Each structure stands twice: as structure tokens, then as C-alpha cells.
């Protein structure tokens, strides 16, 4: 069964011409930006076009369009709230990542790299696997093909040698290896 719009395509054009200014005024009064109002009205008429078989006749069509526009506005406002929340999360992450001037750490990083270069290959590898790659001693043991106890012993000795080479001017204890990596924010799931 075909609808009135299928039989008379001009009906939709008349419906659009008669109701566009009313719906635009309705949307402008309910959004912060005029561009958003235009988007709301465009979405409203797109829905009307897709659901043209449900369009009532006469003045009821205008009321139906207002109902559609009201739901489109509700979706628009919910999307705005989500955008604000996501924006706040992004600003927080960016502040965390970029709060410090990375150039301030350059001298420390160079000192750490120089000390690492003076270590033996095995000491350097065990420090880098645990410090840079974040592996636990048992995980580093798998990579190196030795026991976890051997890695813990090597790690302890490598840290002591590294402290001797790097000196005490790199910051508080435990800080020396922290300058090797920049914090990477974890994504919330």
C-alpha cells in the first residue's frame, strides 16, 4: 500500500517548506550554537523522509515533526554530555603526560644512558628488561633463558654497579631508572 508521499512527492516538499522555519526556530531556542540547530532540523527531516509512511496528514504532520525534533534534540544533548566527559578525560590525560617539560629530563637521561653503556652486556640487558620493558624477574628469566633466582641475583648486582657508575646526583633512591621512561597513560575500558 503506498502512502500519500509516494503518490505525491510534492507533499514532502510542501511539508518541508511549511515546517522548516518553525522547526529551525524551535531548535535554535534549545541549542547553544545555530549550527547545531541546523543539524537538528536536517536530522529531523531525514527521519521524516525515511519514515514517510508514518507521517500523519494535515496539521498532525507538523506536530509529528516537533516530536521527532524533540527526540533528535535529546540525542544531541546526550551526545554533548558524552563529548564533555570525554574531553575532560582527554584534558586530564594530556595534563598528566605533558605536565613536565621533557627537556628538563635530558641531562638525566643522557647520564643514565652513559652509565648503561659502561655496564656489561648482561647487566645492561637485565636492567633494561626490568626497567624499560617492565618485566618481572621471572619473565626476564624466560627471555634470558636462566632461572628467576639467577635474574634476581643479576638484577641486584646490576643495580649496584649502575648506581656506582651513575652516581648519586640523579635524584632520590629508586629514581634513577624512572628517568628512562616517560609515563604512558593506560586507557580506561
UniProtKB/TrEMBL annotation:
Pfam families tied to this protein: Sigma70_r2, Sigma70_r4_2
A single BP term in Gene Ontology: DNA-templated transcription initiation
RNA polymerase sigma factor 70 region 4 type domain mapped to chain residues: 110-161
Any one Gene Ontology cellular component term annotated for this protein: DNA-directed RNA polymerase complex
Xref: InterPro entries: RNA_pol_sigma-70-like (IPR039425), RNA_pol_sigma-70_dom (IPR014284), RNA_pol_sigma70_r2 (IPR007627), RNA_pol_sigma70_r4_t2 (IPR013249), RNA_pol_sigma_r2 (IPR013325), RNA_pol_sigma_r3/r4-like (IPR013324), WH-like_DNA-bd_sf (IPR036388)
Domain RNA polymerase sigma-70 region residues, every copy: 15-80
Keyword annotations from UniProtKB, A to Z: DNA-directed RNA polymerase, Sigma factor, Transcription, Transcription regulation
The keyword Transmembrane helix is assigned to this record: no
SUPFAM superfamilies documented for this protein: Sigma2 domain of RNA polymerase sigma factors, Sigma3 and sigma4 domains of RNA polymerase sigma factors
Keyword Transcription regulation: yes
Domain of life per record: Bacteria
GO molecular function (one): sigma factor activity
Protein family per UniProt: Belongs to the sigma-70 factor family. ECF subfamily.
Protein name in UniProt: DNA-directed RNA polymerase sigma-70 factor
